[in-house]
Amino acid sequence: MRGVWLIILLSVALFVALDVAFVSWWYALEQGAQRVEVRTADGWTVVAWHRPAVRRRFALPVVLCHGLANNHRIMEFRAPQNLAKFLSEAGFDCYSVDLRGAGTSSAPDEGPWDASFDDHVKFDLPALVDAVCKHSGARQVAWVGHSMGGLVALAASSSTLKDRIAVLVTIGSPVFLSLPRALPEFVRLARLAALWGQFDSTLLRLLAPFAGWTTPPSIARTTANLRNLDGVTQRFLVANVFAPMWRGVLRQLEDWMRNGVFRSLDLKQDYRPGLAALAVPTLVIGGTVDFLAPPDLMRTYFELLTAPKRELVLFGKSYGHSAEYGHGDLLVGKQAHVEVYPVISRFLESHLEEALTSSKAA
Hints:
globular, alpha/beta, two-stranded antiparallel sheet
């Protein structure tokens, strides 16, 4: 009997190994950016992936930051759904980043490890911005963040990154959380399953060959409007963009969802008041069917802003676009490179020019 179970276990292990090897080979993305290692004050190594401008037009670099459970490849995806490539061709020097736990970032030594949203704000972002500025010769950066990648910048803009961000773009970043009932339960279960400090969503890559062919679990529909993603894109996404979720971040999200807040894990710092003090040009992007950051809550978030130059843009058929946009498809949807990317580029171009002019005048 033991021999039978051993054969079964070895067969499963062999299948998993072959599946991982196949996914890594078949769904590999083109490498177009240079890896820049960045050491944080608490010893982590995070990463900025530099894609130089084809013809550099702006002195200030653009930092592109992924959201929860993603890595830099969501910004360096499969052309034409590649925001970093699009911006580099428009003249921007781009740095797509991996926060701690994502991509090829690494801990100072063996774990177990945990991290919170606050660790990203306190340690990762200052180290990354310092490194990007040093690498590019600039004093400030433009920040483009998707989902949590926008939230960390909002939280840091009045604290650890004060006066370091010249222009801010947030894409589907839910300052207020009113989520479908299944999602808070998933967050709670993922936190409980994070026995080694993380819930390892990278294991989803084993399912990459099946994505787009079968009916996905209902929770997948909260991450994107799957009708706005073709099957090939879905398979490449599952194979490449997922990253582990920290237990501390999940615990913080639970607090935000349960209590309707946007605050630090120790409950001492409320991040929302800082939004009113944000003075830099800010573009807020949302999707009409984004369950994580629905239009009404994006409008409420936008109303908190008092920056003299601010703009809210929603993407969906009612606004003249080709499809209703959800969460992740704001970055990698079928026509995102035609509809979303140019809006980001125009906003950056306009306000980075103004920032440079002001800097020279000073």
